[in-house]
UniProtKB/TrEMBL annotation:
Name of this chain's protein: Alpha-1,4 glucan phosphorylase
Role description: Allosteric enzyme that catalyzes the rate-limiting step in glycogen catabolism, the phosphorolytic cleavage of glycogen to produce glucose-1-phosphate, and plays a central role in maintaining cellular and organismal glucose homeostasis.
Cofactor: pyridoxal 5'-phosphate
Entry GO terms, CC: cytoplasm
Organism, as annotated: Lentinula raphanica
Keyword Plastid (UniProt): no
C-alpha cells in the first residue's frame, strides 16, 4: 500500500479528536416505544455466548486449564509455578474484565459526574491476591489451585510488583483507587505506563546502595492491563504559537507524539464496580518524524522517534526534589494533554455545552505534577472550542482541585521559563496571561504592595525566571487541601499564606490521608482479619468497608483469651518475617525480641540517621553493662528498609552506616542476643506487607513540621503495632484517635523549629556541650568503629554543623522515648491491650473515609452502583 502525503499538511494543527470505540462505552439505541434495540445479529445466540464471573471451583479450574492450553500453549507436563500463576491470573483477569466492561457501560449510560485522579505515580504493588480478595474468590481459587497440584502462596510469590511510584504519594493514589471502586464512585485514575518503575536496590558488601533498572514488563504480557491500541491522542511539543484575534492562538510545528492507552482494572471490594486506571504510553506518531524525513535527514527522523518512545520509558526516582529536567516536563505535559483530551472527548459525548463541564467533570491534581492541566484545559477551551477567556477560566477553576503533599522548599516544583517557552510556547503565553489578570486583581485588593505582588506572582524573578507550579495550581483550582491537620495548617500559614489572605480561607482545607484496609489488613494480615471477623461476628465484607466497626473490639482488650489469640498472631507474623529474612538473606532473626521497624524513603528529614545513631547508642550502653545488668534488658531487633534517590549522597551514606553498624553489632557475641540490626534491601509494597504485620513498634521520627502526613504510620497501627514518633503529620491524629498513652511521642514541636535553626546558624553550641551522649556516638563512628570513619565525615558534618534537621536537639528525648518503650514492653499483658486498643481506634484512617470526603466536599460526585 502506498499513500501520498501532502507536504502542506505536515506540522499543521491536529485533526479533530476522535477515535473508534471498541470495547466499552457503546450505549444501545432504542426504538419508538423506548425499548432497547439489539445492535446486531441474533440476540439469543449472542446471549447464549455470554459468560459470567466464575465463582465455583470446577469452573475456575476449567478456566485455568484453558489458559494453560491456549493462552500459554503449555501442558501439565511443562508447567512451572510461573506458568501456573500466569494461567490463574489470566483467569482472574477474565472475571475482572467482565465487571470492568459492565461498569464502564453503566457509567456511560448513566452519565454521572465523574472524578479523575491525575497522578504521576501509582504504586500498585501486586494485583493477584488483592483481586481475589476483592472478588471474594480467594478460597475458591486456593482450592482449585491445590487441585491442580500447585500451592497458592507459591503462585502469589511469582508476581512482580507494579512499582510505578516512589513512596507515599504513589501508594496513596493506589489506595484511593481501591477505595473509589469499593465505594462505587465513578472515579478514573490517569497516569503513565513507565517501562521502568522505581529502580531495584542492591547493597554492595561495603554497604553502598547500587541501582539497577526495573524492567517490570520484561516478562511478557502483563495480565492486569488491557492495551487499548484504538484509544490514542496526538500530543505536540515545541513549535510556534501565533496569537490570533479574540485571544486565540495557533500552535503548530514542532514534534508530535502519540499517546496510547493501557487500561488497568481496579476492582472494588465485594461489588461489581470495577474502575479504570488509564496509563499512557508514548509512541512515535508515524514510525518516525516526517518533517525530518522529508528534509532528507533520516538519522534525525529516527532519533526523534526514539525520543518519542523515551517519554514514558522511566519513572524519575527522586522523591521530594525537583530537577528541572526537560524530559520530566515532557512527561508531565504528555500525560496531562492525553488525559485531558480523553476527558474532553468523553464529556463531549454527553452532548452538553461546555458551560456544564464542571457539572460532569472534577479533576484532582495529585501534587503539582499535573498542574499543566490548568493551562492545557484553557488552551483546549480557547483555541479549540473558541470559548472566551473569562468563561474558560470559570470552567477551569470550577473543575480542578489541588492537593499539596509537602511544604519542603526543595520539593516545590518550578520550571525555567526558557524551557517552558521552548517546549510549550502556547502554554507559556497562557500562563503569562493568567498571571497578568491575577496580579491585577491582587493589586486591586492590596494597592501598592509590591512585595506581595512579587511573592505571589506565577513567575519568580531570577536567572532564569521560573514558573511556580504550586501558585499556578492554587489559583487555577476550586479547592486546595493538605493531607493531615497540621500539614494543612502549615500550607495555610506558610507556603500559601498570601493566597489565603487574597482568596479567603474557605478555599483551603484538609483531607487527612487514609489507607485501604483491604490490602493493609485483610491481605497482609489474614489471621488478624479472621480473628476480627470472628470476634465481631460479622463477615469481613462489612467491617472492611466500615472500619469504624473496629471500635467494637475495645472491650475484648480486657478478655485474656482474646489477648492470647491476638499475641499469638503477632508472633506468627514475626516468624513469617523471620522466615522471609532467612530465605532471602540467609540470616537468622531472633523472633523472641521486640521488632522495631522503620521503613520509608531515605531522607534527611525522615531521620533514619537519628534511628541508627540511637541504635549505636544502645549498643555502646549494652557494652558497658555487667552480665547481670544485661539480663534485665529487653531484646530488640531493628529493621530498616527504604531507597535513597540515586543522586542523594547523604541519604546513601546513611544506608552505608546502617549496613556497617549492623555488620559489627550483629557479630558481637556479647550483645547479639539483645540487639541486632537488619537493612532489608529493595523495599517494596510486597516487602511492606510482610514487615508491617510483624512490628511491635515502628518509627515515624521526622523533624516536626516536615512530614506532611505519613501513611505507613497508619498501616502499622492498624496492624496493632505501636508508634514511636515526633509530633508531626498524621502521627498527631493517630495519637488523638488511639489515645496518647498508646503512642510514644518525643522531640521538639513545630513552632520551635525555626528558632532552633536560627540558633544553630548564629549561636552554635558544640554537640559535645549540647548532647554529650550523641557526641560520643558520633566520635565512635568517626573513629572507625564501623569501617573507615572518614567515609562518614560528610554525614556527621550535617549534624555537627547547622544540624538543619535537629538531631542534636531531639536525640535525648528520643532515647528517653525508647526507654519508655522498653519499660512498657516489660508488662506484656498491658502491651497487648495497647496493641488491641490501637487497632480498634484506627477506623478514621481508612482511605474510604478520605475518598468520601473528596467525593462529597470537593468533587460533588455520588456512588453509581453497578447492579
Ligand atoms: C508525601 C509526604 C508524605 C505523605 C505523602 C502522601 C510527597 C511530595 N509527599 O508525608 O511526604 O504521606 O506525600 O500524602 O511525596
Amino acid at each position: 500500500m502506498t499513500s501520498v502525503i501532502d507536504p502542506k499538511t505536515i506540522g499543521k494543527p491536529v485533526r479533530p479528536r476522535r477515535h473508534v470505540r471498541t470495547l466499552t462505552g457503546y450505549t444501545p439505541e432504542t426504538d419508538e416505544s423506548g425499548k432497547e434495540k439489539w445492535p446486531r445479529g441474533d440476540e439469543k445466540t449472542w446471549k447464549e455466548g455470554f459468560r459470567s464471573v466464575n465463582t465455583e471451583v470446577p469452573s475456575i479450574t476449567k478456566s485455568i486449564v484453558n489458559h494453560v492450553q491456549t493462552s500459554l500453549a503449555r501442558q501439565a507436563y511443562n508447567l512451572d509455578d510461573l506458568g501456573a500463576y500466569q494461567a490463574a491470573a489470566l483467569s482472574v483477569r477474565d472475571d475482572l474484565i467482565l465487571n470492568w466492561n459492565e461498569t464502564q457501560m453503566h457509567y456511560t449510560r448513566k452519565a454521572p459526574k465523574r472524578a479523575y485522579y491525575l497522578s504521576l505515580e501509582f504504586l500498585m504493588g501486586r494485583t493477584f491476591d488483592n483481586a481475589l480478595l476483592n472478588l471474594g474468590l480467594k478460597e475458591q481459587y486456593r482450592e482449585g489451585i491445590t487441585k491442580l497440584g500447585f500451592n497458592m502462596e507459591d503462585l502469589l510469590e511469582q508476581e512482580r510488583d507494579a512499582a510505578l511510584g516512589n513512596g507515599g504519594l504513589g501508594r496513596l493514589a493506589a489506595c484511593y483507587l481501591d477505595s473509589s471502586a469499593s465505594q462505587e464512585l465513578p472515579v478514573w485514575g490517569y497516569g503513565l505506563r513507565y517501562q521502568y518503575g522505581i529502580f531495584q536496590q542492591l547493597i554492595s558488601p561495603e554497604g553502598q546502595q547500587l541501582e539497577q533498572p526495573d524492567p517490570w514488563l520484561a516478562g511478557g504480557e502483563n495480565p492486569w492491563e488491557l492495551p487499548r491500541l484504538d484509544v490514542t491522542y496526538e500530543v505536540r511539543f515545541y513549535g510556534t504559537a501565533e496569537r490570533l484575534p479574540e485571544g486565540r492562538a495557533l500552535w503548530q510545528g514542532g514534534q508530535e507524539v502519540l499517546a496510547v492507552a493501557y487500561d488497568v482494572m481496579v476492582p472494588g471490594c465485594y461489588t461489581k464496580n470495577t474502575n479504570n486506571l488509564r496509563l499512557w504510553e508514548s509512541k512515535p506518531k508515524r514510525g518516525f518524524d516526517l518533517n525530518s524525513f522529508n528534509a532528507g535527514d533520516y538519522e534525525h527522523a529516527v532519533e526523534s522517534s526514539n525520543s518519542a518512545a523515551a517519554i514514558t520509558s522511566v519513572l524519575y526516582p527522586n522523591d521530594h526534589t525537583t530537577f528541572g529536567k526537560e524530559l520530566r516536563l515532557k512527561q508531565q505535559y504528555f500525560w496531562t494533554a492525553a488525559s485531558l483530551a480523553d476527558i474532553v472527548r468523553r464529556f463531549k459525548n454527553i452532548g452538553k455545552p461546555f458551560s456544564a463541564f464542571p457539572d460532569y467533570v472534577a479533576i484532582q491534581l495529585n501534587d503539582t505534577h499535573p498542574t499543566l492541566a490548568i493551562p492545557e484545559l484553557m488552551r483546549i477551551l480557547i483555541d479549540e472550542e473558541e470559548i472566551p477567556w473569562g468563561k474558560a477560566w470559570d470552567i477551569v477553576t470550577n473543575t480542578v482541585f489541588y492537593t499539596n503533599h509537602t511544604v519542603l522548599p526543595e520539593a516545590l516544583e518550578k520550571w525555567p521559563v526558557p524551557l517552558m517557552e521552548h517546549l510549550l510556547p502556547r502554554h507559556m503565553q497562557i500562563i503569562y496571561d493568567i498571571n497578568l489578570f491575577f496580579l491585577q486583581a491582587v493589586e486591586k485588593k492590596f494597592p501598592g504592595d509590591r512585595d506581595r505582588l512579587a511573592r505571589m506572582s506565577l513567575i519568580e524573578e531570577g536567572f532564569p525566571k521560573q514558573v511556580r507550579m504550586a501558585h499556578l495550581a492554587c489559583i487555577g483550582s476550586r479547592k486546595v487541601n493538605g493531607v493531615a491537620e497540621l500539614h494543612s495548617e502549615l500550607v495555610r500559614t506558610t507556603i500559601l499564606k498570601d493566597f489565603v489572605e487574597f482568596e479567603g480561607p474557605s478555599k483551603f482545607s484538609n483531607v487527612t490521608n487514609g489507607i485501604t484496609p483491604r490490602r493493609w489488613l485483610d491481605q497482609c494480615n489474614p489471621e488478624l482479619s479472621a480473628l476480627i471477623s470472628k470476634t465481631l461476628k460479622v463477615d469481613k465484607s462489612v467491617w472492611l468497608k466500615d472500619l469504624d466497626k473496629l471500635k467494637e473490639l475495645l472491650p475484648y482488650a480486657e478478655d485474656a483469651g482474646f489477648r492470647k489469640e491476638w499475641a499469638a498472631i503477632k508472633q506468627r507474623n514475626k516468624e513469617r518475617l523471620a522466615h522471609h529474612v532467612q530465605t532471602t538473606l540467609g540470616l537468622t532473626v531472633n523472633t523472641h525480641a521486640m521488632f522495631d521497624v522503620q521503613i520509608k524513603r531515605l531522607h534527611e528529614y525522615k531521620r533514619q540517621t537519628l534511628n541508627i545513631l540511637g541504635v549505636i547508642h544502645r549498643y555502646l550502653t549494652l557494652k558497658q553493662m555487667t552480665a547481670a545488668e544485661r539480663k534485665k534488658v529487653n531484646p530488640r531487633v531493628v529493621f530498616f528498609a527504604g531507597k535513597a534517590a540515586p543522586g542523594y549522597y547523604i541519604a546513601k551514606l546513611t544506608i552505608r552506616l546502617i549496613v556497617n553498624a549492623a555488620r559489627i553489632i550483629n557479630a558481637d557475641p556479647e550483645t547479639r542476643d539483645l540487639l541486632t540490626v537488619y537493612f532489608l534491601p529493595d523495599y517494596s509494597v510486597s516487602l511492606a506487607e510482610v514487615l508491617i504485620p510483624a512490628s511491635d513498634i515502628s518509627q515515624h521520627i521526622s523533624t516536626a513540621g516536615t512530614e506532611a502526613s505519613g501513611t505507613s504510620n497508619m498501616k502499622f497501627c492498624l496492624n496493632g503495632g505501636l508508634l514511636v514518633g515526633t509530633v508531626d503529620g498524621a502521627n498527631i491524629e493517630i495519637a488523638e484517635a488511639v489515645g496518647e498513652n498508646n503512642v510514644f511521642f518525643f522531640g521538639h514541636l513545630t513552632p520551635a523549629v525555626e528558632d532552633l535553626r536560627y540558633q544553630h546558624m548564629y549561636h552554635p553550641v558544640p554537640v559535645e556541650e549540647k548532647c554529650p551522649p550523641l557526641a560520643k556516638v558520633l566520635d565512635c563512628v568517626a573513629s572507625g568503629m564501623f569501617g573507615d570513619g572518614g567515609v562518614y565525615e560528610p554525614l556527621l558534618n550535617t549534624i555537627r554543623q547547622h544540624d538543619y534537621y535537629l538531631i542534636t536537639e531531639d536525640f535525648e528525648s528520643y532515647i528517653g522515648a525508647l526507654a519508655m518503650v522498653d519499660q512498657a514492653y516489660l508488662d506484656k499483658e498491658e502491651w497487648i491491650k495497647k496493641s488491641i486498643r490501637t487497632t480498634a481506634n484506627m477506623g478514621k484512617f481508612s482511605s474510604d473515609r478520605a475518598i468520601l470526603e473528596y467525593a462529597e466536599s470537593f468533587w460533588n460526585i455520588e456512588p453509581v452502583k453497578v447492579a
